Every structure is written in C-alpha cells, then in structure tokens.
Amino acid sequence: MNHSNPRQVQLLDTVRTRGSATVEQLAEELGVTLQTVRRDVQRLADAGLLARFHGGVRVPVSTIENIAHPQRQMLHAEAKARIARAVAAQVPHDCSLILNVGTTAEAIARALLQHRGLRVITNNLHVAHILAGNEACEVIVAGGTVRARDRAVVGEATMDFIRQFKVDIALVGCSGIEQDGTVRDYDLREVKVAQAIIGQGREVWLAADASKFNRPAMVQVAPLAAIDRLFTDAEPPAPFPALLAQAQVRCEIA
C-alpha cells in the first residue's frame, strides 16, 4: 500500500475520533458499501494503521510507541504536504534553521528545495538526504546514534552538537498536543534532542497536522508557551484555540 486514498484517511479519522467502530457504522458514516469498507479496512490493517477485533476496528493507539515510519509517511500525507508548503512560504531565503525528526519535517525539507542560501542543521538523515539535492543549501548533520527505524540521530552527542548553534528558526514536530497545553512525544531520547533544538532557536515553529490534537503520548517535550508559531492543516478543536491564545502562539492553518 503506497498511499492512503482520501476515503481511507477519512475512515482512519472516523475510527480515531470514535476510538473504535463497526464495519456497519463506517459504511453508514462514509456512505459506501460494506464490501468497500471491508476492503479498505483490510488494506489499512495490513499496513498496520488499524487493529481489527471481532465485529469492528480500532486505531492501534499507544502512549508508549509511535506508529512506524513507513506507515506515518502514508498517514495524512496530503495534510503534511500542505503544512510543508505553508512553512516553506514563511521561511525566508538566506536563513538558518534546525529541522528535527519525523515525516512532517521530511515533507518540509522537500518544500524547501527551491530556497536559496539556507543553512540547515538536522538530526534526521532523511531530511539531510532530501536537502542535499538543493545545491544552494548547506546541510549540517548532527552526530550521534542512528535509530534504524526512522533514520533519526539521537543521544547525548546529538544534543551537545546542536547546542553549538543559534539559528533563526527551530522547527520541530511532535506526536501529540494534549489538553493540559503540553506538546508531547514517545521517545525520551528524541524528546531530549527536541528540547535542545527548541533552546537554540530565535523563533520556535511547531508543525503538527490536526490528528495530533488530543493524541496521548508519554513524554512532555515543551509547554505551548515555548512555541512561537504552530502550523497545522485544520482549525484546532476546543479547548486548543483558547490555549494557543493564552500561550501567545500564532496559529497558521494550511
């Protein structure tokens, strides 16, 4: 399965919103036949994006572990591409930035391929590989331990490396934004690096598609007050508009 079509993304969103759903409920909600739903469910289950149980499906949500990298690349790909274009439109030529791990960061790297005079520090080997294709961009890769599943570079050495630089824009992603006003993620080592990145930006930008609102994750990255701008793809649900206003975060909806 190379990509989720819009109906499958809608099906996933429906299941995520409800927590679980029967095939009948999904057919009614999406206005399609049971056969179509069963086929979509089978493909999404094969891709590891849905967990099946007797009579229905649920999203395999865990507060401990994120969905695997190839599955995250497929999930909300169009939303991430829109967010990436919105971010790239705001990144000036001739500036310095840090891009961290995650599939949204990779989409942003692709959107920056036409920029001139960028200096990009990253702990994401996918981002480095993408931006190496832009000869007008200097790419600096952080040292450390490479995590096989998503080519992220993490660890103490990574943090020490990042702390050498002060950049115009520190650009981070996350796995969840919770109702207590915290930005959260799954992996403590990844979070430590993200915190180091946030500390080195004159401005801190968070890129998070709308599925991240109310999504639980175990480790706190930062309070919303540490973020200057949030780029997302849909109006955040309550209570987030009030939380964002209170934290003085400028929200850009792609």
From TrEMBL:
Domain HTH deoR-type: 4-59
One Pfam family of this chain: HTH_DeoR
Protein name listed in UniProt: DeoR family transcriptional regulator
Species the sequence originates in: Pseudacidovorax intermedius
UniProt keyword list: DNA-binding, Repressor, Transcription, Transcription regulation
Matches recorded under InterPro entries: ArsR-like_HTH, Carb_Metab_HTH_regulators, DeoR-like_C, DeoR_HTH, NagB/RpiA_transferase-like, Tscrpt_reg_HTH_DeoR_CS, WH-like_DNA-bd_sf, WH_DNA-bd_sf
Transmembrane segments: none
Molecular function via GO: DNA binding; DNA-binding transcription factor activity
